[in-house]
Amino acid sequence: MATTQLNPAQLNVLSLMAYIDTEQEQQELQDILLQFYRKKTDRLLLQFQKEHGITQDTLEEWANEHVRTPYGNR
Fold first, then answer.
1. Which of 29, 39, 67, 71 is the most buried (most CB within 10 A)?
2. d(CA 50, CA 41)
3. What are phi and psi of 63, to 5 degrees?
4. What is the C-alpha to C-alpha distance for residues 2 and 72, in angstroms, rounded to an integer?
5. What pTM did the predictor assign?
6. DSSP state letters, 2-54
């Protein structure tokens, strides 16, 4: 089985875990990390939308599109 080398950020998070004493603290840290990644994802999505000219109107059009798959003519 191959081993995985931890990067400095992962090692830092692991060292901080030593200070977690309760399940509630563990949940709080997990919530903070999830919030961090939600914000990061939102920023990347907005950047992608700007780069590709996707507006709110475009998203609404896509949401209301009825794309049918032709099953009869294979």
1. 29
2. 14
3. -65, -30
4. 48
5. 0.63
6. ---PPPHHHHHHHHHHTT--SHHHHHHHHHHHHHHHHHHHHHHHHHHHHHTT-
| Euclidean distance between CA atoms 19 and 11, whole angstroms | 14
For 55, half-sphere exposure in the C-beta direction (CA atoms, 13 angstrom radius) is 2
- Summarised one tens digit per residue, pLDDT across range 57-74 is 999 999 999 888 877 665
CA end-to-end distance (rounded Å), the chain:
45
* Whether the Cβ atoms of residue 54 and residue 48 lie closer than 8 Å to each other: yes
Exposure of 28 in the CB half-sphere (CA atoms within 13 A) = 9
